[in-house]
Write a structure and sequence with these properties.
heterodimer; A: alpha+beta; 8-stranded antiparallel beta sheet; 6-stranded antiparallel beta sheet; 14 helices; B: alpha/beta; TIM Barrel; Arc Repressor Mutant, subunit A; 9-stranded mixed beta sheet; 3-stranded antiparallel beta sheet; globular
Chain lengths: 601, 369
Amino acid sequence: MTPKDKIRNFCIIAHIDHGKSTLADRILELTETVELREMEDQLLDNMDIERERGITIKARAVRLTYHADDGEDYFFNLIDTPGHVDFNYEVSRSLAACEGAVLIVDASQGIEAQTLANTYLAIEHDLEVLPVINKIDLPSADPDRACNEVENVIGIPAMDAPRISAKMGTNIKEVLERIVTDIPSPKGDDEAPLKALIFDSYYDSYKGVIIYVRVMEGHIKAGDTIRLIAAKAEFQTVEVGYMGAKDLVPVGELHAGEVGYITASIKDIGDTRVGDTVTNAENPCAESLPGYKKVNPMVFSGIYPADGAKYGDLRDALEKLMLNDASLSFEPETSIALGFGFRCGFLGLLHMEIIQERLEREYNLDLITTAPSVIYKVTMTNGETKYIDNPTNFPDPGTISSAEEPVVNAHIYTPSEFVGNIMELCQDRRGTFVDMQYIDENRVDLHYVLPLNEIVYDFFDALKSRTRGYASFDYELKGYAPSKLVKLDVLLNGEIVDALSFIVHEEKAYARGRRLTEKLKENIPRQLFEVPVQAAIGGKIIARETIKALRKDVLAKCYGGDITRKKKLLEKQKEGKKRMRQLGTVSVPQEAFMSVLKLDD
Amino acid sequence: MTGIYVHVPFCIRKCPYCSFYSKPYDADTASLYVEAVYRNIAAYSGKGICADTLYFGGGTPSLLDAGQISRIIEEVRQVFLLDNTEITIEANPCSVDEDKLRGYHAAGVNRISFGIQSTDDSRLGFLGRLHDFKTAVKAVETAHAVGFENISADIMLGAAGETSESLKKTIDTLCDLPVKHISAYMLKIEEGTAFDNDKIKSLAANDDLMSELYLTAVERLEEHGLKQYEISNFCREGYESRHNNKYWTGEDYLGFGPAAHSFFEGVRYCCPPDTEAFINAPVQPREVTEESVNRGEEYILLGLRLCKGISLDKAKVYFGDSAAERLLNLAVEFSKHGLVNLNDDNISLTPQGFLLSNGIISQFIDSVE
């Protein structure tokens, strides 16, 4: 049994790109948890996407042994958390499993949107926050300014914060020493009834679901019957242990204060919700741990295989992803234009992007996705309330008495020179200005209330291009607000293309319709005859473009009996058509469906 | 009835736009080639295959002398029991003289097709032709004088500087000559030809102009009494190319010589484009291009090249009622846009439709699959 006073449970929090995973790598290296020859960059980020994009999607945990300057060995449980707002809830559960947090601040960039959001989250959970100033090797580094920002904005002492370069390996030991001295060891009664917090879980095809827990009270061993309180499910424990850097390491028992894993032949990851409490079925705890909630998807999009024959493959892939991601939801959907596909729900935009990317890369699928939608609340004239996440289901305007849309509290951190640009953007996106605060002389925190459906629509890209990438952005759901919503339809050759319909604010409908028809015209090749592209609300056409007719597509010479060329041409056209959707006599390339997702140039 | 095609793979000089197989002429190779053709035809002896058309294509078949042509025709007569035969030879205006033409005619050739291309010498220069228009006129008149009743001329649309007006003049001039048949091709820059470069591409008519030229040609030729019967072919009443029609109606044909294609007993095959190999092999090599053709698909693919088009009744036989119904619905949609003529049971393309025939045909085929 590990003595509690030798345990330190902590996580690392940071804005994206401030060096979280690099510091984690250095710590693994320095504690010789991983032999040097086994080191590869960003060891804790297992997925290719995580490595490439430099982000952490899933929480990871690892146990390391550190031989400190006081001559004692300490056991560190490092929990790596996703930094993004989409995974806020997961982050909060990871934080709840720790006593301290190492807060990384980039010495050249200072505090950014996610730095603050995550720090507040850590403080809420009563964690000891240990600031670290990273990237001091950069020419543009200004550690003093970064320290000042931490003190002024967050209000924690930072003047003696370790100043490090995770990349170069500078001063990493100082961080480890400070973890020993500054972060409290865990408490908890080993003999109390078991109370453990689930902060992550994943599916393993041999062992079933593997649950990552922090034991708060009591102890657990193989053979114990456990109860997952919120899931109302019981299982027989097969194995308990802790997380080595490369493998799971079984141990006899896990005790209060320790971080480890449990396997219990669990088949369905839906049973192991993050935030749920694990207790002993025979000797249950009196009450579950606070903070559990079921997370609900906020953003929805239709996902279709580009090749209709791959529908089964797509379903299999989604099912596999869902094994590891209980927050992903999907149900079959049929579109006249796109055939069979799925309506998928995501925690947010990043979550959506990641799922789409993983489907394409890990499962080798070619996808067509529809414009992301949010959940609208519609009150009908007969008093009934409906929640609409699919434009196709938007009721006839005549039957709607009022409509509401989700709005978010958005914080944008930006160098002050871009304030004008950002305000213009937020204005354009129907934002309501709440407040603006100076973080230091040069940087401000702009607070807006924005409709979620304006954010899901290429807001990040627009923000990036208007601030040359310097602004950072964070949001949380605020609630619903009344809104004048309409459904905008797109007609090709006079026929509605269901997959292109979307719900939009009345005032934006005209501009959006104009832009959309222009984009479609650009992205749909010439057809055999002129094809009108129209945008319409109800029956009323609000914009129109025309796709021109092809002039000539003919093999004039079919001679000497050689018709192989003619056939090859036909084959080629067939091949080309595979990437096209045939809507009546109009051939629409995949790119056309995708082009409408980014209308802001 | 079967058609016989003989590919004569020789040219004095290759035209820069041409992608058909040919190599420089030399007399020794030519006589070895004639022997090989003879040998291969003889191999069919006793099989009871009947043919009613013979076509010498190339290359430049008129590089063979009358004796060589005659020797091949005689053997074809012996082997394929020719009766009431259309015998065509393609000829270059500058590779024939009166004696040669007389000899061809005496050998039994009754249709001659001249590669005239243009009546304008500057465009003939652009196309890299060896003849000028005067030579072409002389060749046609001589052929007519020695007894050729059925004369065809090829013209090329869209060479440098061509306009609708100049094209009309070309057609008017040509129709004053004793020609019964005209093939009008849109200049197409084929990959790997000498024309396959940016300069030529910029000089040749663009798609817009080419379409205009094509529609002009259809209209003007019709005014002169030459009715369109295929995408690129026009003739006076009764002068359709019987041989070429076989390609478009799914009849059998046997090809002899390198690069010659055959469609026989449901199999499509060709002799590889290698003159030496052809000469040296006891039996010409055969490369199967299609083992068993989809007759229904070919009916649409080839039938819609013809002005008479395809019949819905036949489509029902090939594809069943519901597929034929889809075909009809598509035809109705296309006819609204002036691409298709719909008459009772018959579907055919309009000249505008011919210009877009690749796309239309592939949609039709998709609709029945």
